[in-house]
Design goal:
Elements (H helix, E strand, L loop, with lengths): L3 H14 L5 E2 L14 E15 L7 E15 L5 H14 L3 E2 L2 E6 L9 E2 L2 E15 L1
Parallel strand pairs: 1-2
Antiparallel strand pairs: 2-3, 3-7, 4-5, 5-7, 6-7
Amino acid sequence: MASAAVMIAVKERVDAFWTRTPIEYPNETFQPPDDGDPFLAVQYPLAEESAASIGAPGENLQREEGAIRFVLMIPRGGGVIAWTAWLDELRAHFRHQGFGPVRTAGASPAVLDDRNDDGNYWALSCAVAYDADFLG
């Protein structure tokens, strides 16, 4: 899971940009729409930290690297092209950006495979690679 500073920066960026659907963040109270309308889930499936430099005590540069996963939960049976365009907007908003301590790299295209069928929804996901530097 990402550090608190990364999650705060990502949440601020998503909240300021994404108005198409409700947003589900990790372990926050959330109820999917009763009518089966789409929603966006934000996840942090992996992160690791390593020393990027060694300095005086407290001045060591620590680099966190990980991925931000966006999962657009869409109604089943409605196709994917129009919904993928929504996900593409989000990918473009996060691709090669700097905000707070976060620097992002590429953003993967939507994943389409047997794992997409998720109960009442079809899950379209993408991942954005990031890194963030901290002193410590």
